[in-house]
Amino acid sequence: MRRLTTVAAALALTGAGLAGAACAATGQADKADPATSTATGVAGKAATGTACSTVWGSGMKSATESEPGPLKNVRTSRHACYDRMVFDIDVTARRTGYHVGYVDTFHQDGSGERIPVSGGAVLQVYVSAPSYDPATLEPTYLGKAGQRLPGVNVTGYRTFKDTRFGASSEGQTQVALGVRAKLPFRVLRSADHLIVDVAHRW
User: Which of 168, 169, 172 shows the shortest CA–CA distance to 69?
Assistant: First the structure.
């Protein structure tokens, strides 16, 4: 009887070890390709409170060091725990700076003109990637001041409610993201992507 108890305990420990390894592997996958990862679950799938817990906070986040390339595209996606915005940057970029934080109102950089943004809160994103080629001044991303981001539709998103293009000058592009409320967010970056995730809840 004692031997059977010992074997059962060993099997239980082995299973726990395998589960821990699986969780660790999932976390590594998320870090390996943050622009496409759905490690925390895709939209429509249930997620536990533990899986969606976050310590990102809602304070200003920035990184000043930058070796940017031109902005090529902006896209969004829905996940179980957050909505995601991805800035695709030319592969010539080595590191992209950013300045992301909540603002009371969204004002176009340069002119100071107020641009209305739908939602309960406005997250302003400055990405150190111009929407034009610095060498030729030819546009690489066709955002228009005060307009929604081209090709982006956030209808039906749980947290994202609106997007607006601000301006692009002096090597950086300004975008507004209208969200349901002032919620936690994080910023991830790789050489050719800048990712902004906004959690569905605290």
Answer: 172
Report the C-alpha gap between 157 and 67 in whole angstroms.
Answer: 33
Which amino acid makes up residue 184?
P
Unique residue bearing structure tokens 């997250």: 123
Residue type, 119: G
What the block records as the tokens of 180 is: 């349901």
**Could you write out the three-class secondary structure of 100-159?**
EEEECCCECCCCCCECCCCCCEEEEEEECCCCECCCCCCECCCCCCCCCCCCCCCCCCCC
Burial string for 110-126 (b: 16+ CB within 10 Å, else e) reads eeeeebebebebbbbbb
The C-alpha atoms of residue 13 and residue 16 are separated, in whole angstroms, by 5
CA dist., res. 183 & res. 177, Å (int)? 12
Which tens digit of pLDDT belongs to each residue from 33-82?
455 543 333 334 444 445 786 789 999 999 987 777 899 999 999 999 99
CB 61 within 8 A of CB 187: yes
Q: What is the pLDDT of residue 42?
A: 38
| Measured CA angle at 103 (ends 59, 194), to 5 deg | 65
DSSP-derived 3-state class of residue 155: coil
CA distance linking residue 128 with residue 13, whole number of Å: 49
